[in-house]
Amino acid sequence: WKPPVTVAVTGAAGAIGYSLLFKIASGEMLGPDQPVVLSLLDLPTSMDKVQGVMMELADCAFPLLHGMGGFSDARAAFEGVDYACLVGATPRGPGMERKDLLLKNAEIFAAQGKALNAGAPGAKVVVVGNPANTNCLIGMMNAPDMPRANWTAMTRLDQTRAEGLLAAKAGVSVNAVDRVVIWGNHSATQFPDISHATVGGKWAKEAIPDEWYKSTFIPEVAQRGAAIIKARGASSAASAAQAAVFHVRDWALGSRGKWASMGVISNGSYGIGEDLVYSVPVVCYPGEYRRVGGISIDPYAAQMMEATRKELIAERDAIKHLLPK
Ligand code: NAX
């Protein structure tokens, strides 16, 4: 057996946590030979629920689950963790403006960034809680001792949604779909890009009508979360947990040459500028990701990428006063 690694999950009493924790404990995220210790963080008012989740985790008798603890304090929860899945966030309440939501969550992620910086500066972080990209930016900026590359925001659910939709349209299995890219924000402005995608070995753009791509595919991927809420009466939970598993699994174990989309700190490439957490295609090697470089961007893609970039800049402006100088 390998020595155990510790994985923190925030929002552990929530809907995504309820699916994600069991996947991690079963080995689905870090591999079938990797023991794990789980650190569950939620609000003080949710500690009974956290206890209940831990009872169920114990009842599964997962061979890889070597320990767990429930916490309501971020510093205690993050001490020495190897991975942190930051799922918990304040939901948009009645009458709450988007700006209020950004500010409320920025405070949470500023505090969690500081706590990770203090107790686990080597941790690899995926931010799931919305607004994920900007929450990630603020956490990263409050963790000056951590490599910025260790902070990522999840857009993998958008990728898998896009892959599923494209496969269905082309009448192929999802295995036959490759190189779909999600650019930008995990929001309605995201750009699901099939310019470089292949479907069953053919260029997706040749296999799929352009009209369907622009008028149906892009808005459907971007609005899929709302469609799930309408159908289920609750937001995506199992699919979000699965996407978090894919995101961290690729990062930890490598993506075997496959492209994956992740929100990562921008480095000036593709006209994105700097200091934004913007989703780009990466290829993962065990423990690291590398941006895919040299992709051609046509005028339509450039326009879509710019729209989502502008939204991220506006989000950053709204919480600017919380970013350390
Ligand atoms: P739930 O409302 O079921 O659970 C959220 C949990 O977080 C609650 O138990 C709450 O007590 C806890 N929480 C709130 N503030 C916290 C804090 N400061 N520290 C620790 N825990 C805290 O939401 P759920 O459906 O699990 O969704 C969680 C987040 O994921 C939401 O922000 C949601 O918008 C976001 N999503 C992100 C997705 C993505 O692709 N990036 C997709 C799915 C999901 O919508």
UniProtKB/TrEMBL annotation:
The keyword Zinc-finger does not apply. Residues 6-140 form the Lactate/malate dehydrogenase N-terminal domain. GO terms for biological process: malate metabolic process. Its EC number is 1.1.1.37. GO terms for molecular function: L-malate dehydrogenase (NAD+) activity. Residues 155-320 form the Lactate/malate dehydrogenase C-terminal domain. It is an enzyme of class 1 (oxidoreductase). Keywords: NAD, Oxidoreductase. Belongs to the LDH/MDH superfamily. MDH type 2 family. This is malate dehydrogenase. It comes from Diacronema lutheri (Unicellular marine alga).
